[in-house]
Amino acid sequence: MTRYSNAFSKLFDRFSRKAQKSLDIKPHELFPLNPELPLPAGISENELFDFLKSVLVEDAPPQEMANYCQYDFRRFVYTYGLARDLAGKGLELGSNPYFTTMLLKEFTQIDLSLANYFNSELGSTVERGVSYQKFGSKENLSIKLKSSQFNIEEEKFPFADKEFNVVFFL
């Protein structure tokens, strides 16, 4: 072995050891796939889940709603976390089935306007009944949620420019 090949071999060994050390870092350590949930202050994950799983849109299949809440609970809470310190007017596009709506209404200072699109035959507004248990008391309540109904791909938004401080596109 020549002097150069020996030096190259040592350099290569040193590089290999450093590369191996960096490979020992697990991908989830660099990019966590389950970051901590941004829960409202003083509220546990179980309490928040119980609140959301009580949300039921009129005429919606209860098991379908329960499954949706179960599988997308973290997404709803992460969305809330993006807005928890905001105030002002908000627009929620695609608000049905109202899980995120209920989080934002209960735990933020955002005055929400809702928008959905079901079909053109329903007119420009739609009102849906939603039942839920009041957070902290388990009292059964129901509300009517009014949504603007328009196709965002084909129609002009029925709101003034710069009307909202935040827009949620769900």
Structural descriptors:
single chain, 170 residues, alpha/beta, six-stranded mixed beta sheet, 5 helices, 6 strands, 38% helix, elongated
What does this structure look like?
This protein has helices at residues 3-23, 27-30, 45-53, 62-83, 99-107; strands at residues 56-57, 87-93, 109-116, 125-133, 140-149, 166-169. The chain has 170 residues and is α/β, with parallel strands linked by helices. A six-stranded mixed sheet has the order 1-4-5-3-2-6, with helices on one face. It is elongated, with a radius of gyration of 25 Å. The chain starts with a helix and ends with a strand.
Largest sheet: number of strands, sense, barrel closure: 6 strands, mixed
- Number of H- or I-type helical stretches: 5
Count up the domains. 2
Into which percent range does the helicity of residues fall?
A: 25-40%
What Rg, in angstroms, do the CA atoms define? Answer: 25 Å
Topology pattern, helix = H, strand = E: HHHEHEHEEEE
Instruction: Provide the spatial order of strands within the biggest beta sheet.
Output: 1-4-5-3-2-6
Mean pLDDT: 89
Instruction: Give the termini distance in whole angstroms.
Output: 65 Å
SSE class: alpha/beta
Measured by DSSP, the beta-strand proportion falls in 15-25%
Per DSSP E runs of 2 or more residues, the count of β-strands stands at 6
Q: Uncertain spans, ≥5 residues at pLDDT below 50?
A: none
The protein's oligomeric status is single chain
CA-based shape: elongated
Furnish the topology, listing elements before pairings.
Blueprint: H1 3-23, H2 27-30, H3 45-53, E1 56-57, H4 62-83, E2 87-93, H5 99-107, E3 109-116, E4 125-133, E5 140-149, E6 166-169
Parallel strand pairs: 2-3, 2-6, 3-5
Antiparallel strand pairs: 1-4, 4-5
Helix pairs in contact: 4-5
